[in-house]
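S1.2 Input.
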Amino acid sequence: MTKNLRILIHASDPSSMIEKLTEVAPEIEVYGHDTYEGLSPVLKELQPDIAYSVAFEGRNGFPRDALLGSDGPGWIAVGGSGVDHLGSWDKSTVTVTNSAGVAAPMIAEYVFGAILHFTLDIDGMAADRVERHWQPDRLMTPLRGKTILIVGLGHTGQEVAAKAKAFGLRVIGTRARPEPMDNVDEVHGPDALPDLWRRADFVVLSVPLLPSTRGLVNSRSLISMKAGAVLVDVSRGGVLDGAALINTMRAGHLKGAALDVFETEPLSSDNPLWGLDRVILSPHCSAVYEDWAMHSFELFLENLTRWRTGAPLFNIVDPDRGY
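S1.3 Output.
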């Protein structure tokens, strides 16, 4: 007798996902686990074929050894785009997919919300309102004709590029394997960054955290940026050197910075970033919107259909490249 397909949903609240999967495929055995703790014995007992897993409490303490151990599944579907919390894995024994692209439009909106915050001087207008001060010579800063540098032209970077073109920006960007792309005027390899920093009025970081990208934006990178540039980081904590950014902002070199990711999350209350002017801090939420979790899960369900019919999976992550 052939056993039924078993799927473990590892999420903070797997109930709605279990309900959805049971609705579309009632013959599948589906189980849920809602903490990082205790995953190893659950895997040992269930022996699932597939695990849909979300890093819902951040990277620290994520039970990667359990998921990638001998009792782990043959396919791990990550309910997000980043996979650095998994470390490395043997692709001959386990397949890892991600949900890259699901939240890219929302992240792109966050990017331009942050950029417009600084170009329209929202903080300045808010301060004038508090003081009941009418500033007759206030000027807006138009985006048209300026240059945006997108470091990482993956799903998110491409969404940012499309919106940038709608604003009339010149778009330059980098990717590991440069090739012409829609909405991008210049595509370069990462080795071109030392010459690209100084050209950009706006810099957007949207690369995964890899050995090659850890500390990519350091003191030298920041001081090489155009004076008065705006930096937006929607990559992964560790790509940007936080201490270097603090020094750069205190020196007044950049007009502003918006940070959605941090090397240690949550950001400690005594971190100097909290006290800086011209800095937007958000709790790794640029990709989070109502129904995001279910949209990600629906992408997994599409992939599950492919898996069951023998079709190639999409969004397979190469452990050597990290995406």
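S1.4 Remarks. The mean pLDDT is 96.
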